[in-house]
Amino acid sequence: MENKEQQVRKLYEQLISAWNHRNAKGMADLFSKNGESIGFDGSQSNGPEEIFSHLDPVFRDRPTAPYVTKIKEIRFLGEDIAIVRAIAGMVPPGESDIKPDVNTHQTLLLSFQNGKWNIELFQNTPAQFHGRPELVEKMTDELRELL
User: Fold this and answer.
1) Strand, helix or coil at 134?
2) Residue 79: which CATH number?
3) Which of 92, 145, 113 lies closest to 11 in space, CA to CA?
4) Residue 58 and residue 52: Cα distance in Å, rounded?
5) Transmembrane ranges (predicted)?
6) CA dist., res. 49 & res. 29, Å (int)
7) Do the beta carbons of residue 37 and residue 109 sit within 8 Å?
């Protein structure tokens, strides 16, 4: 049986897999009924239905790039609350390298309800590091190691 950290890690991996497979329903189903998603561009969606309605046309109409991710921290704030911090980069379709200007910090707040972990908040924050190009390069290099 998986321990809590493994369960939380698996949920994050399911979220990333759903994005990488352009599966809006798969992503939306990982959220609690009040879960919120804040996208890279700042767009907000609340609840699985709205998250699905936001993502479905994105996946249908745009060639979204898959994520390359690395979990930096999993922290428990109690028995049934966890935070996941990760870094992510994207490899645009038809390319083979990470595009540094869309690197992001990903933060998830998870809750354990009805016997399973659910996403309460998923936020993508652009990792622009204004005026500090060495930090962009460092993050990009760290993600490139995973390619």
Assistant:
1) helix
2) 3.10.450.50
3) 113
4) 10
5) none
6) 9
7) no
